[in-house]
Design goal:
The structure is a homodimer.
Chain A lengths: L11 H8 L3 H7 L8 H14 L5 H8 L4 E6 L6 H15 L3 E6 L7 H9 L4 E4 L6 H9 L4 E4 L9 E5 L1 H14 L5 E5 L5 H16 L6 E4 L4 H13 L6 E4 L2 H13 L10 E6 L12 E4 L2 H18 L6 E4 L3 E2 L11 E4 L2 E4 L5
Parallel strand pairs in A: 1-2, 1-3, 3-4, 4-5, 5-11, 6-7, 6-8, 8-9, 9-10
Antiparallel strand pairs in A: 10-12, 13-14
Helix pairs in contact in A: 1-2, 1-3, 2-3, 5-12, 8-9, 10-11
The structure holds a DNA duplex.
Chain lengths: ~350, ~350
DNA sequence: CTGAAAGCGCTTACAG
DNA sequence: CTGAAAGCGCTTACAG
């Protein structure tokens, strides 16, 4: 079945023969920093060009014990936040001369097949950018001596490095914003309830509302999924005491929520109902939605992720590190505004109440 | 700098020693179809489990001359069509026991760095799913004996395999639909003008309109880019003789076009202006947009792509093959309807005029 | 079915 | 600076 006729590919020995030098010399020519005279180097380069030689990265990996491959595990790409992350990761990893091996799709249970692949390919590092992956997996990798960084999530035990934004602070900020906007009754459409992002965002939201005397948040479960968010908000808006402000755990769901509110319930946003999201993803900026949302500084998050990974690979130290960045509450048109606290920054409107 | 302390990893020799068999026996245990007795196999498996052994895929690749890695080159992921494709590709490739090496970001000029990487990693196949990549590149790969499949595009010279939908037919269908809907003046927001998809979609559109006596299509260049599409449509709608129907070369731009028409020009869609897109991407289904659009059968396209690649890898034959699938004109709310020809299928409304 | 051995295409001490 | 040689962890004829 596997009778492929892939061309063998030119080897360093063939180049050596052609150039009249040793195979070692060819290798050194293509090893940055190796000691090689300009003259030999030139001879090798000529021969290599003639033959169309390119070093075999597979063979190199075998001997250096470094694949220069980073595995990125991303359960789903439907939420545009993740493709954006992926693109930026690709860019930065390429700059560091690393390749990106992508694992996508739902990994059931402890997803051993994926883990197996990671291990078999001897990837130099792993980025876990999805909320549905078992934290078991990440610790296993760390045990195997492979640097792992969690992107946009943490595990309970803090044993694995992570890059997140201050989700709790974000939830709190959103609550304060809605309170300042004079809202009376508060709803929450959750993400996946066990995820750290969801837990923290909700915790902050609830705390700040409780501090203002609001203990009766109406909660619906959206699981970071459009369809489930639609079902949840349908139920929420069908109540006689429906909220006049809903914090939706991410923009991806907020878009669906807005469509249901407008087109199924005939509500005006933000007059009848205020919506606040999270992420500041592409569609949040589209005029039809104009979602007021907590931004996540994607570029800086990716930068931190790649930086941490590179650091751990270089040093061999796999000590868990947790980087927490700050977002901004970007104010658009999906929520009623407070009287004060809106400032202009970088061409965006930000909610930044001056602390007394 | 690179003083990594990545753990060496268990080797087959270590497992062999532990199991009291030869290293060959260990290898055979992990090679499906190799001749090995159940007893030896069991001994090896036990030892492997104890030591946490996993075959080194890098070493295996070196000797088999197959990496089981497929490179996917995708210039940008902003258009949700591509993340969807990526996810499906990941799924199918995993099923075939292949890994996905992702190359993203703009490749300038002839993007030799990327090409270099592809060659260095000895990927078994390449999927080119982006319109901005040089066709030069793809032919170079084919020359090197690596199967290449173009996804959603073709090259002029047909030298490289491709999977597309019948874009010309699609453009024609859209024109017929708009004509049947009684539109009088036609616009077109193009994609990247040199791309095969754009050329074909526009050609079909223009042909069918011309056949009905409309030779004066108003054209704006959108380059498959939201911002450019916005600029283009702004100019188009500012004309005194603005169109009452616009075919936008993909949904990604159509969304932006609709927002401009509605919120900058105060137009009602579809009463004042009909919009038709292409792809049937997620946002086209969102209630705020409800874009009438030519669908591209993503799953079948990906299936065909992976199938062709697998076939070429297995046979070693790299003969260019061109698979052209058919889409449907999915009718939603962004365009005025013809009196006849709308049928229900799979829960969607389709435009399917009965040929006389 | 099994083991000893060659070899995949490189990198990297080692000796000169 | 250079070359001969060992070795990375496997697969796969080959002989038994």
């Amino acid at each position: 079945m596997d009778s492929g006729v892939k061309k063998p590919g030119v080897t360093s020995s063939e180049v050596a023969r052609r150039a009249g030098v040793s195979q070692s010399a060819v290798s050194r020519t293509f090893t940055p920093g190796a000691s090689i005279s300009p003259k030999t180097r030139a001879k090798v380069m000529d021969a290599a060009k003639e033959l169309g030689y390119r070093p075999n990265a597979i063979a190199r990996s075998l001997i250096t014990n470094r694949s220069r491959i980073i595995a990125v595990v991303m359960a789903y790409l439907e939420n545009l936040f993740y493709p954006d992350v992926l693109e930026e990761l690709g860019r930065l990893l390429a700059k560091e001369n690393y390749r990106l091996l992508l694992f996508t799709g739902q990994m059931d249970r402890d997803s051993d097949p994926v883990f197996d692949q990671l291990m078999q390919y001897r990837v130099d590092g792993i980025i876990l950018a999805s909320t549905t992956l078992s934290s078991h997996l990440s610790e296993e990798c760390a045990t195997a001596g492979i640097p792992v960084v969690l992107f946009n999530r943490t595990t309970e035990r803090d044993a694995v490095s992570s890059v997140t934004t201050s989700n709790r602070e974000g939830g709190r900020r959103i609550a304060e914003f809605l309170l300042a906007g004079g809202h009376k009754r508060f709803g929450y459409i959750s993400g996946i309830e066990s995820s750290s992002t969801n837990r923290d965002r909700f915790a902050g939201y609830r705390e700040a509302l409780a501090a203002a005397g609001h203990d009766d948040i109406v909660v619906g479960v959206g699981n970071y999924n459009r369809t489930e968010a639609e079902v949840a908000v349908r139920q929420m808006l069908g109540r006689s005491d429906r909220p006049d402000a809903i914090f939706v755990a991410n923009d991806h769901m907020a878009v669906a929520v807005m469509d249901v509110a407008r087109y199924e319930f005939g509500l005006n946003i933000p007059e009848d109902l205020s919506i606040v999201g999270y992420d500041d993803v592409g569609p949040a900026r589209w005029t039809s939605y104009g979602i007021t949302t907590m931004s996540q500084p994607l570029k800086r998050m990716v930068e931190a992720t790649v930086g941490m990974l590179m650091g751990q690979i270089a040093s061999g130290e796999i000590e868990a590190e947790h980087r927490i960045l700050n977002g901004e509450l970007v104010v658009r048109t999906s929520a009623r505004l407070p009287k004060t606290g809106i400032v202009e920054a970088d061409g965006r409107r930000i909610y930044k109440p001056s602390k007394a």
